[in-house]
Amino acid sequence: MPAVQETVERVRRIDVDQYRYGFETQIESDKAPKGLSEDTVRFISAKKNEPAWMLEWRLEAYRRWLTMTEPTWARVDYPKIDYQDIYYYAAPKPKKTLSSIDEIDPEILKTYEKLGIPLREVAILEGVEPPPGGPPSPSRKIAVDAVFDSVSVATTFQKELKAAGVIFMPISEAIREHPELVQKYLGTVVPTSDNYFATLNSAVFSDGSFVYVPPGVRCPMELSTYFRINERNTGQFERTLIIADKGSYVSYLEGCTAPQRDENQLHAAVVELVTLDDAEIKYSTVQNWYPGNSEGKGGIYNFVTKRGDCRGRNSKISWTQVETGSAITWKYPSCILRGDNSSGEFYSIAISNGFQQVDSGTKMIHLGKNTSSRIISKGIAAGKSQNTYRGLVSAHRKATGARNYTACDSLLIGDKCGAHTVPYVEAKNSSATFEHEATTSKISEDVLFYCIQRGLSQEEAVGLVVNGFVKDVLQQLPMEFAVEAQKLISISLEGSVG
Amino acid sequence: MSLLEVKDLQVRVEEREILHGLSLTVNPGQVHAIMGPNGSGKSTLSHVIAGKPGYEVTGGQILFKGEDLLEMAPNERAAKGVFLAFQYPVEIPGVTTWNFLHAALNAQRKARGEDEISSPAFLKKVREVAKSLNIPQDMLKRGVNVGFSGGEKKRNEILQMALFEPAVCILDEMDSGLDIDALRIAADGVNALRSPERAMVVITHYQRLLNYIVPDVVHVMSKGRVVKSGGKELALELEESGYAQFEDAA
Ligand SMILES: Nc1ncnc2c1ncn2[C@@H]1O[C@H](COP(=O)(O)OP(=O)(O)O)[C@@H](O)[C@H]1O
Ligand SMILES: [Mg+2]
Fold first, then answer.
1. Residue B30's pLDDT is what?
2. What does pTM read for this prediction?
3. What distance in Å separates residue A465's CA from the closest CA in chain B?
4. Where do the domains of chain B lie, and which CATH numbers do they carry?
5. Residue A391 · residue A377 · CB < 8 Å
6. Cα B163 versus chain centre, distance
7. What is the pLDDT of residues A256-296, one digit of tens each?
8. Residues in B lying within 8 Å of A, measured between beta carbons
9. Torsion sign across C-alpha atoms A99, A105, A109, A112
10. What is the largest CA-CA distance in chain B?
């Protein structure tokens, strides 16, 4: 494994309390007053120059939220969140309107450089040089819509996307520039009343990405957003909406890191995907937010609602996630298989170490005829962490011929962690075929010793075995992400054995 | 100087003493056979030499080229040239044999302060070695030992031995689970690696293997001790009379 050496070197340079990405950028910010009220919602909406309908939408969500209670069914345990002790809006102060990357605040660019984000990297900007060993893709390009705190500050490749007719912009801009599209689709996959955190997001979302791929268009590049939480005590409420119109295809990458904090930070994002007839969306996430320190202090609370609606016939939505960060993860990227012959996929690697708590999985809701879904989940628990897979596969009365295959594998490292599998299955018609396989194993001392006898260090051995365990899922990631994810996996398991 | 010197080694596992003062001196170029009934402590000895955790050394010493082996981390021992061919090679799903060997070889080279070997150079080398051992290329692409037959697993051990070019090779029950043809192929591989600088310790329960890998010295082990040492004819003697005669000596 070529990445092993490099990984190990990187691992050596960090220790558990020195989260690699734990630095803070000094830039002035523009904050809403602390706390949540109708005024906060109005402030955010006004800051964004939103039309009246958007403000109404937010206020309705806010009023709904006041009547709701925080869910407690997940296997996660955290101190009560004081929603009045959070800033709901923070933006880097705009110096002027930006027309190119060169105009971005150098402080912000430096942050991206430290994160190793290839915003300015010629190779990627030029779209050449796939990683060694990667598939030949000379024209492979990535467009980066960088979300810094709550406002998008850099958008690249706009021109080329425009030529293809693809709209890729901050959602705040889309609300102003493409109100008809936003109004048509926003909240149709995750309604404002969906759940406590999604409703909160609907009221106060700050920014996020908007993508529209017109009929018959294959998006000419991977679209990518890097999220980053920066302001102390700032809740982060991203909102992303992706629409793949008939016969179109788009691959979207989301990657995140956050600086170190003592206070816990709330993050409640909503992602909505819509595919019309014969369209496909591939959505990949690598999440490595600050997980808290070695005593379990700090770390991000990540309560995310991600859902895709296969609205059209023969459409497809595929979720791939590599979750290594956050103190608490509450996340179930799901597919509603509404169109006949539509299909949904969920490929997941969820790693927990230290005191992290992960409750993640998926829902595959089969509504149309001959719909199929596939779930491959790899959970890895180390340290004193708890790692739960929670999944629902259901077939509606009319969903004849629904098929699902689920494989849930858990790997335990050490004996102070826990892995749990909570599968729910509901078949309301007899023609559904649901297959479920689950395994739980411990990383074997004999396997580790075998590797070490061949010259590998303990960390290298763990990294190798774990990367083998998650291989089926890693293969689903676009190449750029797969290499990074592989390194991340080894880094996040540092200090987990011995 | 001897290559490997085990002096009065005492080892405990979970409070129980398994090796009660075992000594062994192996010189460069030699092949030593260690024979003994099941449970006599052969695998324990091989594990302690390789540095497997879980064994408590309560007395004695192991020197490798004059250095205290017990002070070294197991991967350091590997980099210095101690190789153990396991009695039960493990499976590592999802990790191709090719990747595993490349990572291991580079880890060893790095520990020795040598340059890493590039993918093309490695590919060339591993192909040559595989060919000489009659190992199909296809095996290198599969997960380490995953779905391998008993013979393939043992051949994979010898492939690694050939690739890493260790100074001391310990082969634990290389013959177990092999039919006569597989045994012959494996033994040919081992014989090809015999050299004036290298030593081998061949652990076996049966004399049969020693028809193919002819040892210079044979030790009989019983109940955690070496009870008799001699030339290769000792193995034949054992074949005739069995281990029973040594039970009392132990
Ligand atoms: N991990 C262990 N825990 C407890 N007893 C062990 C362990 N490993 C070996 N032993 C015991 O040590 C003795 C020697 O075992 P072993 O070295 O495997 O013998 P051999 O390889 O000669 O068959 C046996 O009695 C065995 O039961
Ligand atoms: Mg044995």
1. 95
2. 0.81
3. 7
4. 4-249 (3.40.50.300)
5. yes
6. 14
7. 555 555 465 888 999 999 999 999 999 998 888 888 877 87
8. 50-54, 74-75, 78-79, 83-84, 86, 88-95, 99-100, 102-108, 110-111, 116, 119, 143, 160, 164
9. negative
10. 57
